[in-house]
Amino acid sequence: VEKNVLVVTTVEPLTNGGGRGQFGSAIMSFRIALLLLLQASCTLGHVALTYPRAAYPQYDFLDNVRTGGPCGLAMGQPTSRDTLVANTEVTVTFHLAYAHRGGFAFDLLSCNGTTQLVDLTNGVVPNVSSTTTEWTLTLPSNTCDCCYFRLRREAREWTGPAAWGGRYIFWSCAPVQILLAATDSCDGTNCSGHGTCQGGACTCSGMWYGKYCQYEDACRNDSDCNGHGQCIDLQSTSPPAHQCFCEAGWHGPLCSKKSTLTNAMFNEDDYPGYIKAKDNLEYFYQFDSDNNELEVAIKYSGGEEWVGFGFRPSGTDGSCRATSPGFYPPSASQVTPEGEGEGEGEGETNAEGEGETNAEGEGETTAEGEGETNAEGEGETNAEGEGENNAEGEAGTGSLHAMDCTDMVISKVKGNLHRILDHYTRGRSTPQEDEWYGGQQNIVAAVGQRVDGVTYIRFRKPARSSETHSIFVPCT
Question: Structure pTM?
Answer without folding.
Answer: 0.78
